[in-house]
Amino acid sequence: MGTQPLAPPRGRGAVRRPHSLLAVSPRSSLHRPSSAGASAPPAAAPSPLSEYLVAREPGRRERAENWRVAIGLQKVDGLAVSPYLVEIASRNVEGEISIEDARRIVGEYYEEKPAGADPAAHEEADRAAANINAILAEPAFRLSPEYYVGLHRRIFAGVFPFAGKLRTVNLTKKEWVLDGETVHYTPYTEIAASLDWDFRNEREYRYPARDKAALVAHFAAFVSGLWQIHPFREGNTRTAAVFAAKYLRELRFKDVSNEPFAEHAWFFRNALVRANYEDLAHGIERTTVPLEAFFRNILLGERNELKNRYLHIRAAELGLVAPIGATKPDVTINVTINDTIQLTDIERKIAGILRKTPTTTRAELSVESGLSSRQIQRILDSLKTKSGLRRIGSRKTGRWEFPSHPAT
Fold it and tell me: Which of 201, 232, 248, 392 keeps 20 to 30 A from 51, CA to CA?
C-alpha cells in the first residue's frame, strides 16, 4: 500500500483531538506493531562509512521543548501562533509526522491560504516557529558571522523578502522599558565589520571551566553585543535567541533547559535593551545584570525572578522596584583561573592604556588602538564586568579606575 501524502487538515472536524502542547504521553503510544507475518530483512553488510551517522530527530521530550521555545519566541515581537500550528506541532511531538514534514505542511498551508483562515494574523509566527523548531533539532553549528546571517535566512525563509540580508538603513525603535527612548544600534555601514570583530574575539576567548559565574557574565556580554549590532531590519531578537541556544549546546551544555526562552522571551528582549542603553545624565548605566540572571537560570538552575517591570528605567519612580543599575553591589565578578583575570589580547591592550593614562577618553582610545567607538565601548563594558573598571567623573575630565589590577 502506498504512503498517503501528508496534508493540512481541512475544516473544524479535521482536528482529531485537543492537544496540550508538549504534554508528553507514554512512549508506548508511539510504538506501532509490525505487519502480521512480515519477516525481518537480511542484515546488510556494514558500510565503511558507518561511523558517520546521519543525525536523527531528537527524542520526544526534546521535540516538545524545542516547539515550546520556537512558539514562545514569537512573543518578543508581539506575535502569537495559530491553533493550526499548535496542532501540527503536537503531531510532530507525538511522532506522527517528522520535523521536516511539519515545516513543509505549514508552508503549504500558507501558500494555499485556505478560505476562512486569517493568514495575516499568524503567518509570520507560524512560519518562523516551524523554521526555528527545525533549526533547534539539528546539531549543526558554527561560530561565525556567516552562520549567524544564515540563521536569519533560515528562520525567516518565506516570511521576509530580506531574510538573510544585512540591513542598508539605520534603525531606531521606541522601547517601553526605556520610556520611549531607543537603543543606539550599530550604523549599517559598520555591520559586517562589527560582526567579524565580535566573532573573531569570541573565538579567541577561553571560557573558564570552573568559574560558571564568569562564564555566564562573558556569555551574556557576547550575546548582548551581537544583538546591539542589529544586523537585520526585523527578527534580530529571535535570531539572537536561537543562536544563543545553539551556542550553549556547542559548549556542551546539553542537559540544560531552554525553557526560559519559551516562558520569558519578552524579558530576554528587555534585558538585551538594558544591556545596551545608557543615559549618564540621568544616572542610567548599561547593565548585563538582568541578562545574566536569565542565563543563570538556564545554566546554573537558579530561580531568579524574571519580571519585566523590574527592568523599566523609572521602576522606582513608578513604584515597581529599585531601578536596575541604579546602585552597584560592592563586589565585582572576576573571570579567574588560578587567581588571574582572563582577558583577551585586545582587552589587555586597552587595560594597559588605562592603567598608564587613567584620564584617557573613549575617543583617544579609539585613535590609539585603531578600533571603532563601538568596539571600544564593548571592551570597556567587558572590563567593567571582569575587573570592576569604572569611570570617575565626566567623560571629558574624569578618569578610569580599577579596584584590582587586571592581568596585562
Answer: 248
